[in-house]
User: Which sequence fits this backbone?
């Protein structure tokens, strides 16, 4: 792969598909009866997961299967990993060696150990005997080897290091700061394999319950033809603008990212068409590849799918999936807007030509796209009202009635699609490029939006579980795949109904296979990462990491965030995004929250998890390993390392945004009302565009260095207006700790008081501190103090704290303090909200600064225009 890319030879279509397969689904494709057998296994896995997610799972599946679904999920993944992924580059691709069959069967049986011996494990309380320990240890070795094949050596090496730490943590060669007593084989294997603390923990549970259905949903939607439809629509809307192929690549990749959790597959799927056209209008091979990389990788941050990490956040943070995608939406949206602006500036700087001979107004194009997305969002939201009316009118048969209406809507949209030609992929290398006309092709794929509407409706309106929501959307896709071709033939008056029906079954069959093969790596990543999570919970190394990072960073939150970002990038060189997120969030998320509290900043846990997720995604871009950059270079024929560096430069906004939303949680729409949310969205969009202009060195014309600095400064003011307003008018006033109850009594409902608590750490006996955020609810101040769980004792002017009762709001925040030491835990500072002008007033000078730069550049641009070339 590397030699081809660096040799400036674009790979052929067959080579590109092999590249995607080797990274995402396994490079081995046996033929004949073995190939058919493996295909059947993959289809059975997909069908099992669909049934498991269905409302009838309790009827169709035995209770023992449901209780041990994680074991069954991993068994399928291990079996297919040994069958689909060769052990070495020289290993055969056309057949499965005998040794791999042995490993596959052994790994499958040991993964099912908890299923076979479920009652024995329950009776023993999850404690392993010698037999359990031996089988579990062999299972871990087989899991690590499967992970090495599917994910590369880094994941297996890191998990092995953590496992060795479990066994040999008391050895002298382990640094004293992280030394622990070590564990026996039985204790370690109980934790890692027999119970749900390790391999079969939360991460694999999320992969089993949620992720598979969404990956399958994406595979089926792409097999139905939605990917090609989205790309065609993007090129029809944007292809004729200056730099149009690059803009279409961004929008097409964003749409494809909705249905694809793989940045490499996204690069190859859209890049084979977009990259040659970008090169045609003047982008270099590296620039064209970089645009595709930046837009494809960002597909993972775009709700509603967001890869596997979003579902893990639900479990780790303890909030609903709707809340996760609500918090993630605005940063993802403005990130894509900025990327469109980046390619626009590149096109203007280089005075690139347009494709085709149609004259298209950019204003009308943007307005039309905004109207489409607004209409689609309104449709997803508004469909709840007729649904509620039908449910109220016929409650007994409302399910059947709604299903019939969906089928009628599908039939009507398919009738429209039958009236136009089927969309075929275009050749980007043909002498004459005829970009599609949106008005002529939009009918061809409107029915692809139905499953997405169903998914969004169940997720956002009904607020059903992600698994059940994906089930209903996937069930509709089953119908679409099987029926769209024969129904089109019927509507067109064609006679090939039987052949079209066979083609539909063929598409469904291969969609089920693709979904299962795409899940192999994710299932193994979540299982192997469970060893790392299990090590953290068994050894308590997370607390040590907190102290170590605090020591290295000197207690500076920004420095620690930089360290976390670098750690994510380094680990991401060898780990897939999901595994990287699990590892770094398990080790560092709590540390960031704790250190933020010590610094007086209350950092929401979801903000930290999104921070880690963003940097994990950036690892797909960053040299020297960035896999998406290598894939793009393989398509473009450019240099892979240069492509990675340019893609990283184009992705600076993705690096900056996590730092912004850690300190300004309004960007994540946390505790933000509708009107304020609209204001935040508008200001953040302007801010990211200004930041982009500053980093790209071009606004109205080429920027001078000081103008770029001014633009970046203005962007900072738009992103963080509170930073400046807090220095003009402090947001809090100091209140004596003894007057805490009075301060709560005086506070308006919704006001937030900050309480600094200081005392000895229970584990280290060192002085530590944390900040509590107490929100007033309008009741009596003393009642609020009791309600929070604060037990105050005032002695000699010092407000001491007794240990709060378990389950009270502050108990988890204060659990690390030693309430029984000679040195008391005490409140040292109380800050009550002060009267402050709206921070949004800082937008005015920031926008004036942007206008000033624009005026200076416009004057210079006019002078340049007046000078003959």
Assistant:
């Amino acid at each position: 792969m590397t030699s081809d890319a660096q040799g400036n030879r674009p790979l052929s279509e067959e080579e590109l598909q092999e590249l995607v397969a080797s990274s995402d689904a396994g490079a081995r494709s046996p033929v004949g009866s073995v190939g058919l057998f493996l295909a059947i296994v993959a289809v059975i896995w997909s069908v099992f997961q669909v049934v498991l997610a269905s409302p009838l799972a309790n009827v169709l599946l035995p209770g023992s299967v449901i209780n041990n679904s994680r074991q069954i999920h991993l068994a399928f993944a291990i079996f297919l990993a040994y069958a689909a992924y060769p052990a070495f580059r020289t290993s055969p691709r056309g057949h499965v060696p005998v040794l791999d069959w042995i490993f596959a069967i052994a790994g499958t049986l040991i993964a099912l150990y908890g299923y076979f011996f479920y009652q024995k494990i329950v009776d023993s309380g999850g404690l392993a005997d010698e037999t359990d320990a031996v089988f579990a240890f062999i299972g871990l070795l087989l899991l690590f080897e499967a992970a090495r094949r599917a994910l590369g050596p880094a994941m297996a090496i890191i998990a092995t290091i953590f496992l060795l730490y479990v066994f040999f943590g008391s050895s002298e060669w382990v640094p004293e700061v992280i030394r622990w007593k070590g564990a026996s084989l039985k204790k370690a294997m109980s934790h890692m394999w027999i119970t749900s603390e390790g391999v079969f923990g939360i991460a694999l549970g999320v992969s089993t319950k949620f992720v598979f259905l969404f990956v399958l949903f994406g595979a089926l939607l792409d097999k139905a033809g939605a990917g090609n439809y989205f790309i065609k629509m993007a090129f029809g809307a944007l292809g004729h603008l200056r730099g149009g192929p690059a803009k279409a690549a961004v929008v097409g990749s964003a749409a494809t990212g909705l249905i694809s959790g793989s940045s490499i597959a996204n690069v190859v799927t859209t890049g084979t068409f977009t990259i040659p056209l970008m090169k045609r209008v003047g982008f270099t091979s590296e620039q064209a590849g970089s645009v595709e990389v930046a837009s494809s990788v960002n597909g993972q941050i775009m709700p509603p799918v967001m890869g596997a990490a979003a579902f893990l956040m639900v479990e780790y943070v303890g909030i609903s999936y709707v809340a996760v995608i609500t918090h993630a939406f605005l940063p993802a949206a403005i990130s894509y807007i900025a990327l469109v602006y980046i390619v626009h500036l590149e096109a203007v700087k280089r005075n690139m030509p347009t494709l085709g001979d149609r004259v298209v107004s950019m204003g009308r194009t943007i307005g039309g796209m905004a109207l489409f997305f607004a209409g689609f969002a309104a449709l997803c939201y508004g469909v709840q009202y007729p649904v509620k009316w039908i449910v109220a009118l016929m409650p007994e048969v409302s399910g059947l009635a709604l299903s019939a209406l969906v089928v009628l809507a599908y039939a009507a949209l398919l009738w429209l699609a039958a009236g136009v030609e089927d969309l075929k992929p275009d050749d980007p290398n043909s002498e004459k490029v005829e970009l599609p006309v949106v008005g002529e092709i939009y009918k061809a794929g409107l029915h692809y939006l139905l499953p997405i509407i169903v998914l969004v409706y169940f997720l956002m309106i009904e607020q059903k579980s992600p698994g059940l929501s994906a089930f209903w959307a996937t069930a509709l896709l089953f119908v679409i795949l099987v029926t769209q071709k024969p129904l089109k033939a019927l509507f067109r008056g064609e006679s090939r109904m039987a052949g079209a029906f066979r083609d539909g079954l063929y598409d469904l069959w291969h969609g089920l296979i693709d979904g299962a093969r795409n899940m192999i790596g994710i299932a193994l990543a979540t299982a192997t990462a469970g060893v790392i999570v299990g090590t953290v919970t068994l050894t308590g190394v997370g607390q040590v990491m907190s102290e170590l990072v605090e020591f290295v960073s000197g207690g500076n939150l920004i420095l620690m965030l930089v360290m976390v970002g670098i750690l994510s990038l380094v680990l991401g060189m060898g780990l897939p995004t999901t595994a990287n997120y699990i590892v770094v969030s398990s080790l560092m998320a709590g540390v960031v929250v704790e250190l933020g509290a010590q610094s007086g900043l209350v950092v929401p846990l979801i903000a930290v998890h999104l921070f880690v997720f963003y940097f994990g995604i950036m690892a797909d871009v960053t040299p020297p390993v960035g896999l998406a950059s290598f894939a793009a270079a393989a398509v473009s024929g450019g240099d892979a390392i240069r492509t990675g560096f340019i893609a990283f430069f184009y992705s600076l906004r993705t690096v900056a945004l996590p730092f912004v939303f850690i300190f300004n949680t309004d960007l994540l729409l946390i505790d933000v009302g509708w009107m304020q949310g609209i204001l935040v969205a508008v200001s953040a969009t302007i801010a990211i565009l200004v930041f982009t202009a500053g980093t790209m060195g071009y606004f109205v014309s080429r920027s001078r260095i000081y103008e770029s600095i001014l633009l970046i400064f203005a962007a900072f003011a738009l992103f963080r207006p509170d930073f400046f307003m807090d220095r003009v008018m402090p947001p809090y006033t100091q209140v004596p700790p003894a007057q805490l109850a009075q301060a709560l009594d005086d506070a308006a409902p919704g006001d937030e008081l900050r309480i600094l608590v200081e005392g000895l750490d229970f584990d280290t006996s060192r002085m530590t501190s944390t900040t509590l955020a107490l929100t007033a609810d309008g009741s009596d101040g003393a009642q609020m103090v009791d309600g929070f769980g604060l037990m105050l004792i005032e002695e000699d002017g010092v407000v001491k704290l007794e240990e709060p009762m378990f389950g009270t709001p502050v108990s988890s925040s204060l659990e690390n303090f030693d309430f029984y030491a000679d040195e008391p835990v005490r409140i040292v500072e109380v800050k009550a909200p002060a009267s402050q002008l709206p921070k949004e007033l800082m937008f005015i000078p920031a926008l004036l600064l942007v206008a000033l730069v624009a005026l200076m550049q416009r004057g210079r641009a006019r002078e340049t225009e007046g000078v003959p070339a």
Summary: The radius of gyration is 29 Å.
